[in-house]
Amino acid sequence: MCQLLGMNCNTPTDIVFSFTGFATRGGLTDEHRDGWGIAFFEGNGVRHFVDHQPAISSPVAELIKSFPIKSKNVIAHIRKATQGPVILENCHPFVRECWGRYWVFAHNGDLKDFAPVLDGAYHPVGTTDSEQAFCYLLQEMRRRFGDTLPAMSELTAFMREMTAEIASYGTFNMLLSNGEALFTHCSTNLYYIVRQHPFATAALSDDEVAVDFSELTTPKDKVAVIVTAPLTKNECWTQFKTGELKVFVDGDLLPD
Amino acid sequence: MCQLLGMNCNTPTDIVFSFTGFATRGGLTDEHRDGWGIAFFEGNGVRHFVDHQPAISSPVAELIKSFPIKSKNVIAHIRKATQGPVILENCHPFVRECWGRYWVFAHNGDLKDFAPVLDGAYHPVGTTDSEQAFCYLLQEMRRRFGDTLPAMSELTAFMREMTAEIASYGTFNMLLSNGEALFTHCSTNLYYIVRQHPFATAALSDDEVAVDFSELTTPKDKVAVIVTAPLTKNECWTQFKTGELKVFVDGDLLPD
Fold first, then answer.
1. What is the dihedral of CA A241, A244, A249, A252, to 10 degrees?
2. Which of A21, A44, A126, B7 could form a disulfide with A206 if both were Cys (CB 3.0 to 4.6 A apart)?
3. Strand partners, B47
4. Taking Cα atoms as reference points, which of A170, A163, A101 lies closest to residue A134?
5. Do A96 and B91 touch (CB under 8 A)?
């Protein structure tokens, strides 16, 4: 199984702290050695880094840890290959454009006998079930809504329907963002936390690192972090239920 | 005006030497300080780095210079903004997927009153004429050839036609690759060289660096480098003519 990490905030925030603990799982404290990737929205643009080397020994991961990129929406992934060989085009997250926006997607899990008809604008470059699911989701989204981004409520209803359909083929923990919202779906393992005023000190589970967020934030900041397994040992993470879709905008969990 | 750098080879080759001279132009020996980007094909995957900081002071550019990524097709760009503000989504190269392959595009020049109808699968995320041209080109390519990648001769004829059409709106020096071929079009400034056996020593024009390629290559290697202005002072670069489209595959210039 792979590991997912997502962040959605109301102000551009760096993910160095969370990524440091997360990247440790790519070969050191866990077995996910089959590559990794991370995508940061910056305005409407995306910085996209993928590597089929383990995160723990990747020079690109070193760059991410030492160079604080500030973003309101981040998706990261560490891969344990289940379908498709360890090659660059199979590393998550995947990026596509729809309606003049980038969409970023990462998946943890395994889909069995999943062979959607892909006769639209999106086709996988690699050989993973995950990229197939992403292409299918965007194809159907475009089919449903035509040429324009719908209202958030309509988009959320669509995502709820689609993720349930795809999850019927197996395990579908996923993160998807268009730079505004972060859509998250849980089949098995996903936790979230919203960090907000009053901020406290957090200590990583995977590394001997602690950070006092009150020194780095303003009282208005809200930062939602979504992850396969809690990253810190002294904070209270909420576990998703099986089949839940949760949507985060500006660091807030939207009501169902 | 921006600066372009492309490389097409028959064996994965690192671009550290050429990029070192090229990146120097991003703020030190030339005035192109409005961001930069580079994309490397690796198999069917793409490593894509963009930054709106000047290449000369960008930590990501430092990574590229010190971490030799081997690739058969590379496109790099240093931006001098003519249309669109200095934001990440306006940095070249741009990446899209068509027919299950990534396509990478960078442009140098300025298109006037260029407003193609974009009613297909590709829409600009940023505000540059360049990304518009790229989306238009892919849209028309898909319209012409349907669901499958055509033979190289058909694709080349199409690119010749399309680049001439787009170039009628202004200056259109461009590099485009699908990981197999590197399509290059010149309106004003573009030079190329094919390095092959017997390899010699090359000395950068922009920096005090020389490299003996014979130590780094095998006799079978072929490396085509395409650039806005020659990168070395002791090699013989061939200048493109206005309106020329040249296609490179496996380090060879294809015959017209």
1. -30
2. A21
3. B40
4. A163
5. no
- Backbone φ and ψ for B21, nearest 5 degrees, come out as -70, -40
Residue with tokens 């030339």: B30
Which secondary-structure segment (H or E) carries B41? strand B36-42
Instruction: Give the C-alpha separation, A4 to B98, whole Å.
Output: 27
Amino acid letter, residue A16? V
Q: What is the pTM of this model?
A: 0.94
pLDDT 10s digits, B11-22: 999 888 888 878
pLDDT digits (tens, 9 = 90+) for A135-171: 999 999 999 999 999 999 999 999 999 999 999 999 9
ipTM for the complex shown: 0.93
Which tokens in the block code for residue A116?
């959607």
Contact B93, B46 (CB under 8 A): no
Nearest Cα to Cα of residue B68 among A102, A176, A60, A5: A60
**Contact list, B60 vs chain A (CB under 8 Å):** 63, 67
CB contact under 8 A, A50 and B50: no
Taking each helix axis from N to C end, the angle separating A16-24 and A59-66, rounded to the nearest 10 degrees, works out to 150
- Tell me if chain A has a CB within 8 Å of the CB of B200: no
